[in-house]
Amino acid sequence: MQCKICGQENPSCFSERILGRYPVEYYRCNNCCFVQTQEPFWLEEAYARPVNLSDTGYMVRNLFYSKRLTILLFLLFGSTGKFLDYAGGYGVFVRLMRDIGFDFYWEDKYSQNLFSAGFERDYVSKIDAVTVFEAFEHFENPMMELESLLKISKTIIFSTELYPEPLPEPKDWWYYGLDHGQHIAFYSEKTIGYMAERFDVNYYRLGSLHIFSDREIPKWKILAMRLSRFGLYPLIAKKLKSKTWDDHQKATKMVIK
Known about the structure:
The protein is α/β, with parallel strands linked by helices. The chain has helices spanning 43-46, 58-77, 92-100, 142-152, 189-198, 219-226, 232-237, 244-256, and strands spanning 12-18, 22-28, 35-37, 82-86, 103-107, 129-133, 155-159, 185-186, 202-206, 209-213.
């Protein structure tokens, strides 16, 4: 099967059942180390719900990343800037970031915006950075998706779990997501580095957070992010003006109209 990252032919590495009934072949590229499933014919069934029932960490993850992104975005852009949460699900993250004080907007082709309605992307305004949480493993064509994202902004901040070495068997790594069938693309650090080089952007890793950007981020800012557990978040949050009340007034006017 042809690798969807680098285009080379890649061999099968194992097979497993997805959604409890579909035997599926997995392939690992010897060149860029990308792991992908065979062409995913089961996705319509897998996405019967946009957020799968087994994703019990949905709220905890949004709360966690809202704090980390508060520090990161403030260090990179200060208190200004316009941001987009791509594949934003129900809009929880956008609502959290607006409550903190960032001018965030939502976009998702497959989900209803429940928590940040009225703050959808307008396709006109300049976007300073795009966040993409737990979506890269869902992409059927990651390089095409990344190319589209970089047209929105040259700074992409995303999360995905990198597989450990040696490549784990399906029974040994929960991130394959066999129960819900939505995870079809898996990356190593080499894969992510290959993608960055292909699109001529800098790559920075902060645990499960990854950054592609055309700007060079000073080492002290990366260090500050890594030390964020020592209380940077509340200090920065105090410098920002929450948009909660302004958004409430906007929403009220929309309802009256």
